[in-house]
Every structure is written in structure tokens, then in C-alpha cells.
């Protein structure tokens, strides 16, 4: 297995396989927990990929599920070993949304709706620094810089010469008119947004104020899709103290349908660019 394997995605795949083995055995997570003298929540966290899994955990679970094929056991053990490697983001220390970064790093496409701010992948360094400073007033200068560096590193997926991330962003007009930092900073940010929107794999649409009520009023969310069909899509909803990851097919479908309505109701790409350019000019006055 390659040393640069994404540990977050590897944990998800391993968890999905362990869930499949449990279901084939006809056991509930509670029954497995009782057999192994652990909590049911541990089994659930192992299966949803939110918890690091050891080779011992895999061995014990395979024993409960009576997996007799040593090749399967060895493969799962290797996956557990790979899943404990560290991704590039770990070098920056404790990042609250590290699970999301791991998913984003391996995603093939990302659909984002943001009603308040320009999405992180399309932010300038100055905008990111001003935004983080304002949103997290008790954060130290060192931690702010760390978060900015992580955000800039994430943007390498957009600029990648091979297999760049396919990004579709729907913004509310308020994200363009909210002055983060200064008017000059906002001018530069919107000019950058226009430049990025010209990339063939980046689409930016804006929902204008005069549209009124629309399906995005419930708040920001992102939908991640992966190149491997074995990896289910994920809906990511950012929280203040914890984040929400939805992977059930019905949940993903509902958010996907809502996103299609957002794209249909937003200004088209050219109209969106015209609106962004007009607001950028207003900031330059």
C-alpha cells in the first residue's frame, strides 16, 4: 500500500467493510459490543470511520464474525495499519475539522452552498485571515496563522495540474456584500473569485437578494463525491463545537435534490460573474 494513502478515506472504507461483515453475520452493533466487552458507541465509531482502528480491533472483529479467509483478514489488517498513518494536515497540529480535510483531499467533486462567506477553497489569504480573526475572536495569532496555512494548502486541490477537484459553488449575494476586513480586501477577494470562476473545473453561481426565499435558507452545507464507487458520498454540515457528516443514501439524496434547486434558481454563470464584477467595482470606489 502506498505510504501517502489518505488515512481518513481508508478508515471509511475499512469501516464500511466491517459493517458489511457484521450485517452478513446478522448481528447488531450492540451484540458485537457485548461479545467484545466494549461500548456500542465504539463499534459505531469504528464502522463510520470517525475513530482510528487498530489491527487488534480488526482481528477481534473478524473473530466475532468468523471470517475464515486469511486473505480477507490480512487485507483488513493492512487497511487498519494504513488508516493510522498521518495525513499532511496533521503536521499543523490539532485541526478541529481534520476529518473533513481528509475527505476533501480525496474527493473528486465538491458542491458547496454558503449563505454568508466565500468558501474556503476560493478565499484569498487576506480574506481568510480577516474572516478567521473575526469569527474566532479568542483565537491566538499563532492558531489563526495555522488555520490560514491549512486553508491555503487545501486550495492546492483546485490548482492541481492533474485531476483537480471539481468545485461547484452557489453563493448567496450576502456573501459578496459582507465586508470582511476592508473594502479594498473585498475588492481583491471578488477579483480573485472571478479569476477562479474562469477555471474549467470551477463553477460559481450567485443567488441574488431579490430571489427571496429559497431552499438554502437552512444554512451552509457541502456534498463530497469520490472517484472510487465504493466510497459513498458525504454531506458535510459545519458546526460550532462539532460537525455533522451524513452518509445515508436518503440523506445525501435529499441534500442533492435541494442543491439542484439552488443551482436552478441561482443566476447562471455569466450573470453571476456580472454581479460579482459589479460589486467588486463598488468596493473600488
UniProtKB/TrEMBL annotation:
InterPro entries: Cro/C1-type_HTH (IPR001387), DUF5753 (IPR043917), Lambda_DNA-bd_dom_sf (IPR010982). SMART domains: HTH_XRE. Residues 18-73 form the HTH cro/C1-type domain. SUPFAM superfamilies: lambda repressor-like DNA-binding domains. It comes from the Bacteria. It holds the Pfam family DUF5753. CDD domains: HTH_XRE. This is Helix-turn-helix transcriptional regulator. It comes from Streptomyces huasconensis.
Amino acid at each position: 500500500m502506498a505510504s501517502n494513502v489518505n488515512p481518513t478515506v481508508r478508515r471509511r472504507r475499512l469501516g464500511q467493510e466491517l459493517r458489511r461483515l457484521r450485517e452478513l453475520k446478522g448481528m447488531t452493533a450492540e451484540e458485537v459490543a457485548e461479545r467484545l466487552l466494549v461500548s456500542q458507541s465504539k463499534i459505531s465509531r469504528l464502522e463510520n470511520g470517525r475513530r482510528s482502528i487498530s489491527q487488534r480491533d480488526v482481528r477481534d472483529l473478524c473473530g466475532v464474525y468468523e471470517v475464515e479467509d486469511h486473505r480477507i483478514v490480512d487485507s483488513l489488517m493492512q487497511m487498519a495499519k494504513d488508516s493510522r498513518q498521518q495525513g499532511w494536515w496533521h503536521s499543523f497540529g490539532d485541526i478541529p475539522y481534520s476529518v473533513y480535510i481528509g475527505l476533501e483531499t480525496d474527493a473528486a467533486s465538491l458542491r458547496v452552498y454558503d449563505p454568508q462567506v466565500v468558501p474556503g477553497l476560493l478565499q484569498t489569504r487576506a480574506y481568510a485571515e480577516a474572516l478567521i480573526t473575526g469569527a474566532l475572536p479568542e483565537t491566538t495569532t499563532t492558531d489563526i496563522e495555522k488555520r490560514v496555512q491549512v486553508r491555503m494548502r487545501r486550495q492546492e486541490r483546485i490548482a492541481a495540474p492533474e485531476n483537480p477537484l471539481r468545485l461547484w459553488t452557489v453563493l448567496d449575494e450576502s456573501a459578496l456584500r459582507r465586508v470582511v476586513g476592508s473594502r479594498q480586501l473585498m475588492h481583491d477577494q471578488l477579483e480573485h473569485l472571478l479569476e477562479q470562476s474562469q477555471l474549467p473545473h470551477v463553477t460559481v453561481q450567485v443567488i441574488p437578494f431579490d430571489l427571496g426565499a429559497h431552499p438554502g435558507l437552512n444554512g451552509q452545507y457541502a456534498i463530497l463525491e469520490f472517484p472510487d464507487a465504493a466510497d459513498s458520498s458525504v454531506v458535510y454540515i459545519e458546526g460550532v463545537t462539532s460537525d455533522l457528516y451524513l452518509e445515508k443514501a436518503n440523506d445525501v439524496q435529499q441534500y442533492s435534490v435541494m442543491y439542484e434547486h439552488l443551482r436552478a434558481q441561482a443566476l447562471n454563470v455569466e450573470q453571476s460573474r456580472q454581479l460579482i464584477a459589479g460589486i467588486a467595482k463598488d468596493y473600488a470606489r
